[in-house]
Design brief:
4-stranded antiparallel sheet, Methylamine Dehydrogenase, Chain H, about 40% strand, globular
Length: about 350
Amino acid sequence: MGHAYVGLGCGLLFGLSLAGCDPGEPIVPATLGEATEIPLAVGFEPLSLEPGDFDGDGVVDLLVGGVGAGGVVQGAVLRGLGDGSFAPAIDAHFVACSAYPVVGRMSDDARDDVAALGCPRTMEVLAGQADATLAPWAPWPEPRYGIVRSSAIADFEGDGDGDLVTLRRANVSGSDFVLPEMQIDVTSGAGGDGIWGFVTTTFAQTQWSGFDPGQLSVADFDGDALLDVALTQRDNDVVRLFGTAETTFALPLELGVTVAPWSTRVADLDLDGLDDLVVSSYLGAELQVQLSRGITGFDGLPSFALGDLSPYDTALGDVDGDGIPDAAFVDDGQPALRWLPGDG
C-alpha cells in the first residue's frame, strides 16, 4: 500500500492532541472525533482504501478496492465534495489482479494515478482521468517482477517524478525449509514518459528471526531527505530501514509495536519534520502511534480502541476541506466506510 505524506497541522487526529502546535510539547491521548459513516453500495467486499485526487479538482477522493463474486478484483471511487461528503460510488475501471492498489503521481498531469499487481507478475499503472476513473497508462513498460508483497509510489530521486517501489520475494530455488530472500526494487520514473532506472536491495529474512513482511510504507524518518521504508508483518511487528544515497536500504530496526499490526500509515504527527507511523490492528480493533526520534528509533504511544470498527485498511487525507487531515477506515465486515475528523 502507497501513501502521500501529510503534515497534520494543529488540532486532533487519531485521538492525539497537538498541544499548542509546539513540536517540543508532548502529545497526549485524547478522544476521537465523531465518526461519519458513508454507505458504500459497491457490490464487493471492501479490503483497501486509498485517498487521492483522481480527477484533478484539488479535492480528496477515495478509492475502495476489494473482491466481488467469483473472486474478481474490483474498485470504486467516491469523489470528494470537499466538505466531508462524497458523491455516490462509481466504477473505477480498476483492472488488476490485486485488490490493494497504491496511489501517487506517475504521469505528468494534475491527477493522481494508481499502481497494482497485474496477473502475469507485472505491475499495472493506471492513470487518473477527468471523471475520476482509471485507464491504463501507455508509457508504462510493465516490467516483470517476482512475487510482489507490497508497493508504493514516491519520489526517491527528488526530481519531481513519481517512482515505483516494490517489496517482493527473490526468485530463489532450493529447499522449502529455507526462507527466500526479500528484495526492495525502486523503478525510477522518467518525467511522465515511463521509466529509466531499476535498483534492487536484497536482504535475508533471517536477520530478523524469520520476520516475513507483507506491507511496505515509505517515509523520511531521520530528516536527511532520503526516503526510508517501514516493513510490516501482519500480527507480528514493524521494521524500519534507512534509505541511502544509492537508493538502497540498510540498518533494520524492529519497533516492537504493542498492537497486532495489520496496516501502517505515515504522517508527521508531532510536527518535528520527521515522519511517524500509525499502526492499525484489525484483530484488536485498535491503533498505536509510533513517533520517530530520528536515528535513535521510535517512541510508541499507548494504544487506544476503535470500538466496533475493525480497520481492514486506514487512510489519511483532508476529507472535509478544513486543512487538517482526517482518518478514514474500511471494515471488510461492514458495507460502509467511516471517517473521523481532525478537530481544528
